[in-house]
Amino acid sequence: MVDCLQALYHLRGPPSEATSRAQELCVEQTLEYPPELASPHVRERCLARVLELRELEPDCQELRVGFPVEIVLDRHGGVDHAQLLNVLFGNISLKPGVRLVDFVLPPHILGAFPGPRLGANGLFERAGIERGPLVGTALKPMGQSPRELASLAGECARGGIDLLKDDHGICDQPFSPFLERVTRVVEALREASVHTGRRCLYFPNVTAMGSLLEERVEQAAQAGADGLVLSVGLTGLHALLALACAGVVNSRPPLPILAHPALVGAFTVHPDHGVAPGLLLGGLYRLLGADGVIFPSHIGRFGTPTADCRDIMLQGSRALPGIRTLLPVPAGGMRLQDLPEIVEFYGERSLLLIGGDLHRHGDLRSTCARFVEQARRAGAPAES
Amino acid sequence: MVDCLQALYHLRGPPSEATSRAQELCVEQTLEYPPELASPHVRERCLARVLELRELEPDCQELRVGFPVEIVLDRHGGVDHAQLLNVLFGNISLKPGVRLVDFVLPPHILGAFPGPRLGANGLFERAGIERGPLVGTALKPMGQSPRELASLAGECARGGIDLLKDDHGICDQPFSPFLERVTRVVEALREASVHTGRRCLYFPNVTAMGSLLEERVEQAAQAGADGLVLSVGLTGLHALLALACAGVVNSRPPLPILAHPALVGAFTVHPDHGVAPGLLLGGLYRLLGADGVIFPSHIGRFGTPTADCRDIMLQGSRALPGIRTLLPVPAGGMRLQDLPEIVEFYGERSLLLIGGDLHRHGDLRSTCARFVEQARRAGAPAES
User: Fold this and answer.
1) Euclidean distance between CA atoms B372 and B85, whole angstroms
2) Residues A238 and B209: beta-carbon distance below 8 Å
3) Spatial separation of the C-alpha atoms in residues B237 and A285, rounded to whole Å
4) Of all helices (H) and strands (E), which one includes residue A259?
5) Burial profile B168-189: b = 16 or more Cβ within 10 angstroms, e = fewer
6) Which residue, B162, B166, B168, is CA-closest to B123?
7) B302–A359: do the CB atoms touch at under 8 Å?
8) How far is CA A208 from CA A172, A178, B341, in A?
């Protein structure tokens, strides 16, 4: 099996059961049928194989599985993205104590993934910034009118913020209609840019299901937004891929996508089970076309394990021929006072998102200016 | 807050932290902003409230929260389905030890959900069966050609199976192109029905992402399939809602949807965290338009807790004005010998799905006939 798709799992449980659980996984994820009843041809063609099984720590085994690539292809030889995910973790997700940690695609099928349209470099370019980190904030809290949010946006932009996003709970509520909000915020940012001579990018939240998603994406483009926030956990990966592969509409090029992690914790939080956040947010989101990914930082109110944050960074930036790197966007209760530590960890090729804490220090505009100044200073190379 | 959306959570952790965690959840899921910095108007309008907090068992508290309905509406007063999910479990999913167990919608917004087009009763009607349980099986294993799968389909239909589905790992692979497979299977089933005088319904697997999903749905309808299998965990809920709300295309009415649970275990398996399977598979899938839901039975190779299976049944059938009931489809390694126990538990308004075990007893056609006969006998009312 030279041309195989490899996946890495952690199996939580007694070592004595590991071998049979590994075999079980191979069957469950491919044939889903008693192998002894299948024809030798079908077994050879489809059945996954254990490539390696070793103890990682007490009661935790690392399992490497090889899957025949053919079973995740479509009839034209392209990758069937849903089937890839199914083969990696479909049914086996229904058994406890299995965590999908990584996968490696054969290089020749990487071209079947869109990857980021802009990615980290492209977003830095759009922001007009050479050396970061970029600084961003969210329009919040919900419950305010488009006029109030636009006024906040103007203050942030005048303070020098690079990227503004809607708080992910701000949608199209009666008190904050989507199109009106986006139009007013874009207008406020244009006014601000006359004063600052710089651009502040605006990414409204288009997360929605069914026909509403398409409608909001179109409205965002029409109103002059610079990108989109999509909570991929809420809508599902189909929506991400569809947006990432969308073509030019009404002569407007498609907008870059910032993925938000709402609901994703249901997959990732329990260390014994589910999907490792690095793989999901850093690896899969990148392959399926996100340009940047927001995730709860290890510093902040979510207490994400540091290793998880590092994995998201690594998966988002590891070398994949033809696939741009993802912009990491740590967020979730970070505070201005944490900036040196944050920047030391995430580096200058990131976008730091601070929300509520910017509102705790009096005048919003000058707090934003402080945020920008401190972040950039922390990101600058030490003088030698 | 008379007109509120209520949600029920289980918080795993020491009782001493429960009150602050409950308050934290209310803020995280709505304002996501320091409440003391928000205006009284915004707090009143948007902030969720703890309605009840009580000890359920040691280190597990039951929390009932009320959310203002307005925050999950769109500007026309309809429900924003993604935002509903976001408010229920978006960010809080990123903190450990929180499980979303149930929610109750104010009755007047139920109309914003499509619900099943056919549901349990409609699927019984399509199958031409008055008293069940319905019996179904999957075309498997993968790796066979359309011709081979069609031949299996013919055998199952002649054995009297009510509903055939593709194994969820059979997609559009080079060895089994979708359109050719569906066309051949439909043909084989038509031939069989000439002999049996009965109809066997066929639900091919249309699970795919991006433009492929639409293509397969169209091909399925065109080739004469009776319904669709969609692995909602793989594609996301957006895809389910979009299919459920699809209108007539090329004068063909939309097909009923059987949801498959692949990947869903990442959400549901850990009892301390995530989303309760009853709520997700029985409640949400039903509201968003699934007609039936496949889930791993408590009897079978997944070892699903019995209470979870019962919850799926209850959520799928509880009285919701204007929303049809969901057809429960227990599956996952059930065996013929388990039928009496299975039918006793799931009752006759269900579809029993047995896959691999039907291939263990020699001739497939006669094994299917035994399956039908034994299931219906078990479902018949005891003679009095």
Assistant:
1) 39
2) yes
3) 17
4) strand A257-260
5) bbbbbbebbbbbbbbbbbbebb
6) B162
7) no
8) 9, 11, 42
Q: Is A142 on the interface with B (CB under 8 A)?
A: yes
Scan for tokens 């459920």, then name that residue.
Answer: B244
Across chain B, how many H-helices and E-strands are there? 15, 13
Residues A208, B38: C-beta atoms closer than 8 Å: no
Residues of A with Cβ-Cβ distance to B272 under 8 angstroms: 270
CA distance B73 to B44: 16
What does each C-alpha distance from B287 to A41, A204, A210, B8 come to in angstroms? 43, 27, 13, 17
Q: Which of B177, B228, B222, B224 is nearest to B207 (CA)?
A: B228
Nearest to A360 among B30, B32, B34 (CB): B34
What does the alpha-carbon distance between residue A221 and residue A243 come to, in Å, rounded to a whole number? 12
DSSP-assigned beta bridge partners for residue B20 = none
Is the model's pTM score more than 0.90? Answer: yes
Inter-chain residue contact B238 with A241, CB threshold 8 Å: no
B303 DSSP assignment? -
Chain B residues 56-115 with a CB less than 8 Å from chain A: 70-71, 73-75, 77, 80-83, 85-87, 89-96
CA distances from B319 to A274, A358, B351 (A): 33, 47, 20
Three-class SS state of B126: helix
- Residue A38 DSSP label: S
Q: How far is CA A211 from the centre of its chain?
A: 23
Q: Judged by CB atoms within 8 Å, which residues 236-275 of B form the interface with A?
A: 236-239, 241-242, 245, 261-270, 272-275
Express each pLDDT in B80-119 by its tens digit: 999 999 999 999 999 999 999 999 999 888 989 999 999 9
Question: What is the rounded CA–CA span in Å between residue B69 and residue B269?
Answer: 29
**Do the chains contact at B242 and A211, CB–CB below 8 Å?**
yes
A167 φ/ψ angles, rounded to the nearest 5 degrees: -55, 145
Return the C-alpha torsion angle B293, B170, B181, A107, nearest 10: 140
pLDDT (tens, 9 = 90+) of chain A, 384 residues, equals 446 899 999 999 999 999 999 999 999 999 999 999 999 999 999 999 999 999 999 999 999 999 999 999 999 889 999 999 999 999 999 999 999 999 999 988 898 999 999 999 999 999 999 999 999 999 999 999 999 999 999 999 999 999 999 999 999 999 999 999 999 999 999 999 999 999 999 999 999 999 999 999 999 999 999 999 999 999 999 999 999 999 888 888 899 999 999 999 999 999 999 999 999 999 999 999 999 999 999 999 999 999 999 999 999 999 999 999 999 999 999 999 999 999 999 999 999 999 999 999 999 999 999 999 999 999 888 754
Token pair belonging to B354: 């047995």
Q: How far apart are CA B101 and CA B61, in angstroms?
A: 12
DSSP annotation of A93 reads G
Structure token digits, residue B186: 């439909």
Cα dist. A155→A48, A134, A358, B35, B40 in Å?
56, 17, 11, 21, 22
| B38 touches A at CB < 8 Å | yes
